[in-house]
Amino acid sequence: MRLFVAAELPEVLLDALSETSALLRGQVRGRYVAPDSFHLTLAFLGEVPSSQVPDAAAALDEACAAWPPIPVTLGALGSFGRARGAVLWQGFASGADELGGLAGDVRECLAERGLAYDPLAFSPHVTLMRRADIASGVLPMPVVEKGIIETVTLFRSDLSGERPLYEPLHSVRLEAVDGTQDPWR
Ligand code: ATP
Ligand code: MG
Hints:
Blueprint: E1 2-8, H1 11-25, E2 29-32, E3 40-47, H2 53-64, E4 70-82, E5 85-94, H3 96-112, E6 126-133, E7 146-149, E8 151-158, E9 165-173
Antiparallel strand pairs: 1-3, 1-8, 2-6, 4-5, 4-7, 5-6, 8-9
Helix pairs in contact: 2-3
The protein binds adenosine-5'-triphosphate (ATP) and magnesium ion (MG).
Adenosine-5'-triphosphate binds next to strand 1, strand 3 and strand 6.
């Protein structure tokens, strides 16, 4: 099965990303990611035998145990690939270093269990569009919001249908060590 590990996004960020996506709709042609699919990929494993799912889940448990919830702020729009067939995404103006640390721990714990992942350097982003035509160079100002990342999930990706389906297989909540409720204080 096709697996990846992603941070789930709190409602306040999903709402902001949906608003940015709605702004893009007026201006950019391409394939829109459905808001209920927005996520922040930390590690992409690709095809893995189902017998190794428990190892991947254990890697998540171990990697996330040391992490409290991570406050983040949405940032600028960016793209990967060609201007007439781009992946268009929204990045993070704060929290990127912590997200990088978490992604590094997840990857290390996967490697320790013999699980391979795409080794491309982590670049925190939430994909909003694929095959986007951004050749005109005109993009709206994204909606920016802050929120707290509290859940990391192992997903199975099913690409057989009309749109990608992500099935959560195992989730871990990031717990504040001292029980503090509000990381913004
Ligand atoms: P589709 O491939 O149909 O456009 P998708 O990219 O959302 O849909 P997947 O290809 O299964 O679905 O990818 C799942 C997640 O992993 C997405 O966030 C995707 O951007 C990311 N991803 C996919 N391939 C890689 C890769 N080689 N390296 C890093 N991340 C990847
Ligand atoms: Mg893909």
